[in-house]
Write a structure and sequence with these properties.
Helix 1 packs antiparallel against helix 6 and helix 1 packs parallel to helix 7. The chain is globular, with a radius of gyration of 17 Å. By secondary structure, it is mainly α. A hairpin with a 7-residue loop joins strand 1 and strand 2. The longest helix is centred in the N-terminal third of the chain and has 24 residues.
């Protein structure tokens, strides 16, 4: 069904991510962005690069769906597990996750990241996400199905795809902000 209120809610959440990033992270020096804590984990730059990769792939799939007027392929129509996969991925990519899982290697950030223009690239990434979500406002977001960039066997509704993307953005921007407040974080 078309769900303008849902699209508006997701756009609002996406704009909140953008605002958090602007206030909390945009003034950081590239050396701060690539700083890694002594405990295992990603730097701020790696968190952002992960979002650029993972949600970039996801949003490109939605962009291609828009180009086909949201036409589903046969597998997307017939997949008996499409509701299952959407629910599973939402629980693993939401803002607050109960149990962490390792990200697929396809979504791993590069070993070296150019942090000089990272914030600008991320702002452009968020603008693209919000624009594409906005382009879904007149679509039946429950009928339209998308295929995962990780496996062609995994499909889920456009509604779930949007929830996955926005929740994932929230999760890792919050992780980056927490990292910037970690003991030992460089002042510049």
């Amino acid at each position: 069904m078309k769900d303008t209120a849902f699209i508006e809610q997701m756009l609002q959440k996406g704009n909140e991510v953008k605002e958090k990033m602007r206030i909390q992270l945009s003034r950081l020096h590239p050396s701060q962005l690539v700083w890694t804590p002594s405990t295992p984990g990603w730097s701020i730059a790696e968190c952002i690069e992960h979002l650029l990769i993972a949600d970039g792939l996801r949003i490109n799939i939605i962009e291609k769906k828009i180009a086909t007027n949201f036409k589903n392929n046969k597998w997307e129509e017939l997949n008996p597990l499409k509701g299952f996969w959407g629910s599973i991925l939402i629980t693993q990519t939401q803002e607050k996750v109960k149990k962490k899982i390792k990200s697929p290697h396809l979504f791993f950030p590069a070993n070296t990241i150019n942090a000089d223009d990272l914030i600008i690239r991320f702002e452009n990434h968020l603008d693209k996400i919000l624009s594409i979500i906005n382009n879904c406002v007149d679509t039946d977001i429950d009928l339209a199905q998308v295929t995962s960039p990780v496996s062609k066997l995994v499909t889920y509704s456009l509604r779930n795809a949007i929830i996955i993307i926005i929740g994932h953005e929230q999760r890792h921007i919050n992780q980056a902000i927490r990292l910037s407040k970690t003991a030992g974080f460089p002042s510049k």
